[in-house]
């Protein structure tokens, strides 16, 4: 009987079931497992359609991605631009949007008028496939509070995406939309992970917008990162303080399962919304990792450990970049610190 109860627990079956029912359930699952078990040769013959690319080679169907950075840096600007382009088609920086797709953008933080302004500012064409589920609008229209920690709300979002043909789900942001979960508790993420896997099985890509902690890394348990296909980290750009309306930042991939670093170099983005205008001016330029390193030295960071923390790479990688700078003649090392060589 104990073995049957253990089987019931593994298969998520109520312990109140009779032994005969448990045996029948075990037999049923055994059949499913046998059907899905294949030899190495047979594995290649399973007709599962490959995941289609969405943007460039780095964003694909069913992906879990994160865009994160410090508060107020420009995460929502980049996320909404990516969402808009996925609907309108065209390109994001140098990356081609392979075909227009339907997007649901779930916002749990901004005021409604702020989302409206951003959407207009970033729209380049009519977007029949762009949809917003906005926390303030939901409360105004229904009296309900948006909290995706609730399993019923999770199931409803999944069904809505399946029913409405949504292919990409943006969640802005993690801390506001998932109330009641302890950020640093790895086990608490189990209240969200099964839902994310259900979305992936339905080929629905999910993009989280999240905050970075004081150490520059994404806030909360690192277990969230395990299932991610890609992660984009936003850092402050040089002269970012001059930006009055909009945002200016450097976006770098710190994890990328789908593409290489040469395919996805660091980019410096500038979103500018001039006073009195409704359309934002968006520009970007490529940066090499060495250029990003130099920017941090120019901004006053001198220790390898501090620069590594900001760039989210190892101190060993920083040492390699420093050697290139020294060879090029613009960097010198003084003890354990780096400094620029000023040209006369």
Written description of the protein model:
- The protein is an alpha/beta fold.
- It folds into three domains: 42 residues, no CATH class; 235 residues, 3-Layer(aba) Sandwich (Rossmann fold); 51 residues, Arc Repressor Mutant, subunit A (Orthogonal Bundle), CATH 1.10.10.
- 37% of the residues lie in helices and 22% in strands.
- It has 13 helices and 15 strands.
- The strands form four sheets. It has a nine-stranded mixed sheet with strand order 7-6-8-9-3-10-11-12-13, sandwiched between helices. It has a two-stranded antiparallel sheet with strand order 1-2.
- A hairpin with an 8-residue loop joins strand 12 and strand 13.
- The chain is globular and about 85 Å long.
- The protein starts with a helix and ends with a strand.
- The N terminus is likely disordered.
Mean pLDDT: 89
The third-level CATH topology of the largest domain is Rossmann fold
Q: Numbering strands along the chain, what is their spatial order in the largest sheet? A: 7-6-8-9-3-10-11-12-13
Give the overall shape, derived from the CA principal axes. Answer: globular
The CATH architecture category of the largest domain equals: 3-Layer(aba) Sandwich
Percent of residues in helical segments? 25-40%
Task: Give the count of helical stretches.
Answer: 13
Radius of gyration, in angstroms, nearest whole number? 24 Å
Q: Find the structural class using helix and strand composition.
A: alpha/beta
Distance between the termini: 85 Å
CATH class of the largest domain: Alpha Beta
- Give the tally of β-strands: 15
């Amino acid at each position: 009987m104990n073995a049957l109860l253990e089987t019931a627990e593994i298969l998520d079956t109520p312990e109140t079931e009779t032994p005969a029912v448990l045996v029948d359930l075990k037999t049923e699952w055994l059949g499913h497992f046998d059907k899905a078990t294949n030899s190495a040769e047979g594995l290649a013959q399973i007709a599962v359609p490959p995941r289609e690319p969405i943007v460039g080679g780095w964003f694909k169907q069913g992906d879990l991605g994160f865009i994160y950075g410090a508060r107020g840096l420009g995460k929502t600007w980049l996320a909404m631009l990516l969402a808009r382009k996925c609907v309108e088609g065209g390109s994001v920086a140098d990356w081609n949007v392979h075909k227009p797709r339907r997007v649901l953008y779930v916002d749990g933080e901004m005021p409604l008028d702020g989302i409206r302004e951003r959407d207009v500012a970033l729209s380049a064409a009519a977007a029949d496939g762009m949809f917003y589920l906005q926390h303030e609008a939901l409360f105004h229209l229904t009296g309900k509070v948006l909290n995706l920690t609730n399993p019923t709300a999770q199931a409803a979002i999944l069904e809505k995406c399946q029913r409405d043909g949504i292919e990409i789900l943006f969640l802005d942001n993690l801390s506001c939309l998932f109330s009641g979960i302890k950020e640093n508790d790895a086990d608490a993420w189990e209240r969200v992970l099964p839902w994310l896997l259900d979305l992936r099985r339905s080929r629905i890509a999910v993009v989280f917008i999240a905050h970075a902690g004081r150490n520059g890394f994404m806030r909360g348990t690192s277990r969230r990162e395990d299932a991610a296909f890609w992660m984009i980290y936003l850092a402050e750009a040089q002269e970012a303080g001059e930006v009055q309306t909009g945002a200016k930042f450097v976006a770098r991939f710190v994890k990328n399962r789908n593409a290489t670093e040469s395919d996805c170099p660091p980019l410096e983005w500038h979103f500018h919304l001039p006073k009195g205008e409704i359309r934002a001016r968006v520009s970007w330029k490529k940066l090499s990792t060495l250029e990003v390193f130099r920017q941090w030295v120019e901004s006053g960071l001198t220790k390898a450990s501090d620069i590594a923390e900001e760039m989210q790479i190892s101190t060993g990688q920083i040492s390699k970049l420093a050697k290139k700078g020294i060879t090029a003649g613009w960097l010198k090392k003084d003890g354990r610190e780096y400094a620029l060589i000023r040209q006369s």
